[in-house]
Amino acid sequence: MRVSTQEIGIPSPSTAAQDSKRFSSRIRSLLIAGLIACAGILFAHLLIRSRHWEYDHDTPLLQYCGFLMDRYGWMPYRDFFETSMPGTFLFHAVIVALFGTGNLAFILVNDALLGLLLLTSYLWMRQLSRPAAVLFVCWYGAFYLASGPGELMQRDWLAGLPIAIAFSILSNSRTSNGAARMGTAFLIGSLIGASACIKPQLALAGIPIVWGLELVNHRAHMQPRSEAMREFALRRALPAMLGIAAPLTAVAAWLAYRGSFASFASMVHDYLPLHIQQTGDHQFLPRAERLRYVLVNAVQLSGCWPMMLGALFGFVLIDRQFAQQPRNRTLFRVAFSMLAIYAIEPVLSGQFWEYHYDPFQYWLIAVLSLLVLPVLSTSRYVAIPALILTSCVAFSFWRHHVIKAGPAEHGHVADMVSAIESNVPAGVPVQPIDWTTGAVQALLQTEHPLGTRFLYDYHFYHHVQSPVIQKLRTEFVTQLVTRRVPFVLEVRRDFKDVMSGINTSDHFDELDRVLSQRYESVHEGNIFRLLRLNQADATSVLATGQSKNNCSSVRC
Predict the structure, then answer these.
(1) Considering Cα of 144, then 145, then 148, then 149, what sign does the dihedral take?
(2) Strand order through the sheet with 528-533
(3) Which residues lie across from 504 on neighbouring strands?
(4) How far apart are CA 203 and CA 210, in angstroms?
(5) Residue 493 to residues 435, 481, 488, 529: CA-CA distances in angstroms?
(6) 294-351: per-residue pLDDT in tens?
(7) pLDDT (tens digit, 9 = 90+) per residue, 431-483?
(8) For residue 16, with 0-12 CB atoms within 10 Å meaning exposed, 13-18 middle and 19 or more buried, which class applies?
(9) If you write DSSP's letter for every residue of 2-15 in order, what string do you get?
(10) What are φ and ψ of residue 81, in 5° steps?
């Protein structure tokens, strides 16, 4: 008598295998859901906590530039000396004009831009994997905010936003209409040009995006090579180049119309090549040491090299998932090329500050999030992608864990604000002698104009034998004297970033002489002192009404 396994209740081998697969699939799904939940909870927590943050470090300096442009009509380079690109100043001037200079307004603008970035990222990533897109939104959102207030809306991050939008447009471009394809190329080019107005070198990633427009067009594969290249040049490259030129031309015209283009060209040609020679520790090294410094930091990738190794291994695993999806494989490979470009981009300037890797970190987390695909696949070998993904998520927050932010510059900004409000009449120019220790941020919070053309003093302490720096030194001292700047807010040298290395100096005798002979201290803080012009000169300044009309002290 023959009895089946079903009749006696014994599961067949095929049923057991199916149950095992279902159980394995459930475990994989739970793993991804757990990562999304953890990252999402942290993201929500940081969003709530950031309501009380004070923006810090570099960003207040650029906000102050925007304030000077909005309140007094000053122009960058002509009326204040700075090394950032024009698009940065236009952005901050608009933010100040629309929302003011308050901390909460700044945080809300940051959240709006972060939301835009996450939305556009979701729109292109969902075409490859919706679970990966959701994971990226939670992971990158938490990672970005965990950087702390000092890293919010940095220039490289702002410049990376239009690039990400351009990539999203690429991924959603499916039209076969020739005019529409040209319009898409022009729009993408305009976004790349907007990025170049903030950080020119970041626009390099526009090359794979424009080329990707052609690669995702399947009709091109059925054309002869010569015809395909001709169509690419006319319908992709040329409109894209015109799009890139549009914002760059508009910004150049704005500078020329406002009489600031010559000052901009002088800054780029004369001073910027000196400025970019400093290291992250503000050192100026001999050529051999400088080369070693660049090579070492290029490999370290701002501490993200373990995640980059994970992305390199992940590339093979993810690429295999798109073997039967040529369009998605092309999009993924273009995205990985963006990661590669931004990994080496900081080498072009030879500077490796944390925010220089903001675009790299964006594309790194995007690529790593796509490891969700091999984790959720039917492959038996899911342990490797699962291990890489969970390790990278954990590592990213291990090295990026600013959960509770304190007062700006450890409370020194508040002390400076108190001293200014107690001793300086409203609207009177104040000259900061500082860089990022808080003096400029104190002027922003109290809304006092600048006393000379110079926001910072670090320019005067490197390449001191150079005619360029000698000229800047002379200009600064001359303006300080001839404009009879009523107040000076000086951060003591022991508490601020200082230049060191070859051809640097730790003193500025002419400035010290002016301060000691023409100014008197009215407030001594822990790290700073507030100086006032001697009484005879101060009376003359007030009598001429200079304190009420800033156009008499700086060209408007």
Answers:
(1) positive
(2) 430-433, 487-491, 528-533, 519-524
(3) 462
(4) 11
(5) 11, 22, 15, 11
(6) 899 899 998 899 999 999 999 999 999 988 888 889 999 999 999 999 999 888 878 8
(7) 999 887 888 989 999 999 999 999 988 889 999 899 999 999 999 999 999 99
(8) exposed
(9) ---TTTTTPPPHHH
(10) -95, 120
Averaged pLDDT score across all residues of the chain: 85
pLDDT of residue 173: 76
Angle at CA 61, nearest 5°, toward 402 and 263? 145
| Residues 459, 456: Cα–Cα separation, whole Å | 7
Residue 281: CB atoms within 10 Å: 10
Collapsing DSSP to helix, strand or coil, 80 comes out as strand
**Radius of gyration, CA atoms only, the chain:** 28
Q: Bridge-partner residues for 530, per DSSP?
A: 489, 523
Task: In whole angstroms, give the CA distance from residue 284 to residue 204.
Answer: 27
* Among candidate residues 146, 163, 162, 85, the one with its CA nearest the CA of residue 338: 163
Which residue has tokens 């400076």? 416
DSSP code, position 448: P
Cβ atoms of 437 and 491 within 8 Å: the answer is yes
Say yes or no to pLDDT of 156 above 50. yes
Average pLDDT over residues 85-100: 93
Query: Please, are residues 150 and 58 in contact by the beta-carbon 8 Å criterion?
Result: yes
pTM of full prediction above 0.85: yes
- What is the spatial distance between Cα 192 and Cα 161, in angstroms, rounded to a whole number? 10
Spatial contact of 72 and 105, defined as CB atoms under 8 Å apart: no
Query: What tokens were used for 317?
Result: 């695993």
**What amino acid is encoded at 326 in this protein?**
P
Q: What is the full DSSP assignment across 407-437?
A: SGGGGHHHHHHHHHHHHS-TT--EEEE-SSS
Q: State the Cα–Cα distance between residues 206 and 167, nearest whole angstrom.
A: 9
- Enclosing H/E stretch for 385: helix 383-399
Residue 9 confidence (pLDDT) above 80: no
Maximal CA-CA distance, the chain: 121
Q: In Å, how far are 122, 306, 338, 401 from 137, measured between CA atoms?
A: 7, 21, 18, 18
Tokens coding 522: 């009215």
**Look-up of token digits 């090299």:** 305
Which residues, listed in sequence order, are joined to residue 491 by a DSSP beta bridge?
528
DSSP 8-state code for residue 269 = I
The SS3 of residue 89 is helix
Specify which residues 488 forms β-bridges with: 431, 531
- Token pair, residue 271, equals 């001073």
- Euclidean distance between CA atoms 159 and 361, whole angstroms: 13
Tell me the average pLDDT across 378-399: 86
Contact 432, 492 (CB under 8 A): no
Distances 298 to 304, 351, 536 between C-alpha atoms, Å: 11, 10, 55
Number of H helices, E strands in the chain: 23, 6
Distance, CA of 281 to CA of 286 (rounded, Å):
15
The token duo for 420 is 């200014």
